[in-house]
From TrEMBL:
Keywords: Repeat. Residues 9-92 form the Nucleotide exchange factor Fes1 domain. One of its GO terms (molecular function) is adenyl-nucleotide exchange factor activity. This is Nucleotide exchange factor Fes1 domain-containing protein. It comes from Glossina morsitans morsitans. InterPro entries: ARM-like (IPR011989), ARM-type_fold (IPR016024), Hsp70_NEF-Inhibitors (IPR050693), Nucleotide_exch_fac_Fes1 (IPR013918). GO terms for cellular component: endoplasmic reticulum. Gene3D superfamilies: Leucine-rich Repeat Variant. SUPFAM superfamilies: ARM repeat. The keyword ATP-binding does not apply.
């Protein structure tokens, strides 16, 4: 694997301009260049590349040094994060022993160090089964769920990393169930912090879409009722309500979902009110969110359609960002 990567185009741009002038005069080949032009070419390409593996190794050495301050550790972790969005570099970081360093950072007493490490785990794991499997084998998922009862920043970053570790990776989802992680995710819905609530909703809806067993377990844990308690009438688009409705929609398809008449009545009335108050707003014209309504939500007193249209501006909910 080539560990070199473009970081600046200034040198290349300057060279291209000069080379265009050179070619116009008929001297455009490397062999025909004088030593000064060759030296310029080499320096231009050196200035636009860095050795990523060298930087990762340097960051690891900083983190391994017992005399390193927490601020220096955070900077080193941020340096690592700059590169591990590339799947090849992420896998190489694991192979050169980066995991043990990350585990130590996840256990750090310094909050910023822990959060930086969580963000790295998240971004290394996204759509990367090699890293998902590796981190699962090193019990990182068990470590992450211990922070789901902490402050807003730690819980948010932990949910981000957990989501990346289990989405699209069935062994990860199975482990999350086995270690009691689903219950902790549901408990995150009690938060007063919108960012945490949205991330918890996203994780619930995503896992419920991918795995019926997980969806059934969320329903058994009372996730739907807890979400319904937060359902309220809004007068404009609200990302929190969008995340909540998506999660409710997925959970409503569970075979274990059996709402009582009172709950159904509350949900249907609130959804009707949301639509009636928003559908004619100028900012809502031409955009809508289709919310599939389970037949289990229909009551004997309503002829509610099987599909609601809730207004939504451009954009969607995600679990990104620590």
């Amino acid at each position: 694997m080539d560990g070199r990567r473009v970081t600046t185009l200034q040198g290349l741009l300057k060279f291209a301009i000069e080379q265009g002038q050179c070619q116009d005069s008929g001297g455009g080949t490397y062999e025909n260049m004088d030593q000064e032009r060759k030296a310029f070419l080499e320096n231009a390409f050196k200035s636009m590349t860095i050795d990523v593996m060298e930087e990762l190794s340097y960051a690891i050495s900083v983190l391994e040094d017992n005399s390193t301050s927490n601020a220096q550790k955070t900077n080193a972790l941020n340096l690592i994060r700059d590169h591990i969005d590339n799947i090849d570099f992420a896998n190489s970081f694991v192979k050169v022993g980066g995991t043990n360093i990350l585990i130590e950072c996840l256990k750090s007493h310094d909050e910023n160090v822990r959060i930086a490490a969580m963000n790295i785990v998240a971004e290394m794991s996204q759509n990367n089964e090699f890293c998902q499997k590796h981190f699962l084998e090193h019990n990182i998922l068990k470590l992450l769920i211990t922070y789901l009862n902490d402050n807003e920043d730690l819980v948010s970053s932990s949910l981000y990393a957990i989501s990346a570790l289990v989405r699209g990776f069935e062994p990860g989802a199975a482990e999350l169930i086995a270690i009691g992680g689903l219950e902790l995710v549901v408990n995150c819905l009690n938060t007063s912090f919108t960012r945490v609530f949205i991330k918890a909703c996203f994780l619930i809806s995503t896992l419920s879409t991918e795995y019926m067993l997980v969806r059934d377990e969320f329903v058994t844990l009372g996730a739907f009722e807890k979400l319904a308690n937060f359902l309220e009438v809004i007068t404009d688009f609200d990302v929190k309500m969008e995340a909540l409705l998506r999660a409710m929609a997925e959970l409503s398809h569970s075979k274990k979902f059996k709402p009582d008449e009172e709950l159904k009545g509350h949900i249907i009335k609130t959804l009707h009110d949301i639509i009636s108050r928003n559908e004619k707003l100028p900012q809502c014209e031409g955009t809508c969110l289709h919310f599939p309504v389970s037949s289990k939500l229909k009551t004997t007193n309503n002829n509610f359609p099987g599909l609601l249209q809730l207004t939504e501006p451009h954009g969607s909910v995600s679990a990104g960002g620590g």
